[in-house]
Every structure is written in structure tokens, then in C-alpha cells.
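Progress against Task 2.4 (sequence-to-structure conversion) is shown through the following example record, which the project officer requested during the mid-term review.
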Amino acid sequence: MMNREDPRSQVAPRSGPPRPDPGARAPLQWSVIIPAYNEAHRLPRYLDTVVAYFDGRGQPYEVIVVDDGSTDDTAQLVEGLARHHPEVRVLRSGRNEGKGAAVRRGMIAARGDWRLFADADGATPITELKRLEAALAAGADIAIGSRGLSDASISLQTRRHRVMAGRLFNWVVGRTGLHGIHDSQCGFKALRATAADALFPRMTIEGFGFDVELLLRARRAGFEVAEVAVNWADQPGSKSSVLRDGPRMMWQILRARSRLGKTG
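C-alpha cells generated for the chain above:
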């Protein structure tokens, strides 16, 4: 008796795109990192505007709030928002390590192709992202918001002593090797993932001086940095002051500059 093959064994496998992995996560255009220390009063309003802005764009995104050892309700407020907006998450630090450490942690955890870190006080409106985005789209690896560039379309609301202190600080910073940057300290900077992944794991400054180390490392690595004028309004309750924190920041920067000179 002749054995017949099961006709199903003669059917060629169906070709076509692989089935999507249900556990895979969609690629993200933007990650927003917000370092926060005792920001229960200022952060919620700004966080609401960030979420509304990106929801309106219709692109996958994420917002990472890095709670830097807060003793108030900062983390709990973010977690409350995250229950309704899964794009938002909070990373908690067990102790207050400093703004630089918080931004570094958020950048390393981020998944976006482009990554912004922004101050929790909302001094720079999230809508200013379009200015940095244009610089990245034009080819820059890093785009930094600036209060030091002249631009008739920009509004800068700040106290005179802060302007003078900032100019003095940036003049001194320029002598450490960061020439041509008018404002290193504005808390509104965007990076391509390639730049963020190359720079942040090597960062050493945990405090407010980390911006300068970031830019020094970026230049040494050959990344293109674009400085972009942005709207900015001074907010009450600032955690940093060039007059108060300047000497410590300069010490941190000089140490980082020394390390870069030795190791690159």
C-alpha cells in the first residue's frame, strides 16, 4: 500500500514581515529628563505643560523625572501623574547627590533618539524645544539653550545681578578652554543619543558645574555644539546661584579640566 505524504508538509512557509514582538517597545523620538530636588510646588505645573506639548505632537516620547533625594512630595506627585500618563516615570535617588548626578542617571536610562534635559522650574518653556530641534535637524550633535545671545525675537526676564554674575562666570569658564560659548549654564540642552551615550557615562561632576564638563568633553570628542537663543524667565526658588555656588562650581570645573587633560 502506497504511503501518501501529508499535503500540509508540501506547503511552503508563508513569507512576509516578521510578527511584531508584543514585548518590544516602540522607538522614541524624544526623551525629556527633568532633575528635581524638593520641587513639589514648581514641578507639577511644568510637567503638565511638557506632557500636553508632546501629546499634541503625536509622536512616541518619554519623560523621566529624576528625584534627587527629595524630602517633600516630589516623587509621589510624579507617580500620581504617571498613573494617567504611562509616558512619565520617576527615578528615585536615596540621597541628594546633585543636579549633575541626576541628569546623568536620567540620560543613561533614556531611550529616545534625541534627549532633552530641562530644569524643573520651567524657566525655559517647553515650546522652545523647536529651536533646539531645528539645530539638531541641521546636523548639530548637541544644541544648548542660551540666555547670552542677542536675538530680537527672544524675551529674557531676569534680575540684573544674575545677568552680570552669569557673564562673569562664563568669562572665567572661557579661560578653562570653553571658548565661544556665551551661556554654559542654561538648563535646557538637547543631545542626539549618540552624543549622550558617549558623554554621560564618563561624566564626573555631580553638582551644578556639570554643564561645563559636558561641553568640554563634547568638544574634545569632536561633537558639534550649537548654541541657540531661547526665551527664559527667572523663577523664584532657584536652587543654584552663581554668587553662592560659583567658587565650588569653579573648583569642580578645574578638577574636571585637569582630568580631561590627563585622560581625555
